[in-house]
Fold this protein.
Amino acid sequence: MSIKVSVLGSKGKMGSEVVKAINQAQDLELVASIDQNESFDLVKNSGSSVAVDFTTPDSVMKNIELLINSGISPIVGTTGIDDKKLEIIRKLSLDHGNIPVRVVPNFSVGAILMMRFAKMATKFYDSVEIIEYHHAQKVDSPSGTAVRTAKLIAQERKENNLKENPDATISEIPGSRGSKIDGIPVHAVRMQGLVAHQEVIFGSSGENLTIRHDSFDRASFMPGVLLAIRNINKVPGLTIGIDDLIK
């Protein structure tokens, strides 16, 4: 039996790719797709068990609430969801029988491996900084992937009792050293011609290690989206990312 899926934000750059990928998958059935200013009732009454959201930071929380209230498991690729919003989502899920929800900073298998390798490397280096590069139309900064990477690295540094990054800067133009997420410097580039790219640069005396991932086409995210859809019921409640599905 096929999995019935809805897509929110179906006419956007990512949403349209998701629609295409679902239509090409024999075990999935696209039963509803809506975009801005279209009625949520199309999704609510579609019979879908799972919905993929690639909308906007302004609308995503309302969408998640509507989906959960309708008994539909959300898979969220929309960025801009901070820790406070994650707790709201966690409670919403719990209040509705621990309905499965996934909030995914990055669906790319390569990006997830990049984060995994960065976490592995953390304890061996004194310094680390993150540079993320995205297309000029991206509305949030830094990216969800950069935030997730920084948090993973920060937690690993804490567990290994590492000191803060060495940095003798005492004078700077505001913003020239980027921003800090849990103490990890993060820099964002927005430019025409880019899609989605990230470098994690580690340093210690006499050497550097750079772990880089590049997505040149949004089709690279689709295997991860399909993986999340097919495994949505494996874990109850809120799950961050699809790391657990990539073994």
Q: What stands out?
A: The two ends are 26 Å apart (CA to CA).
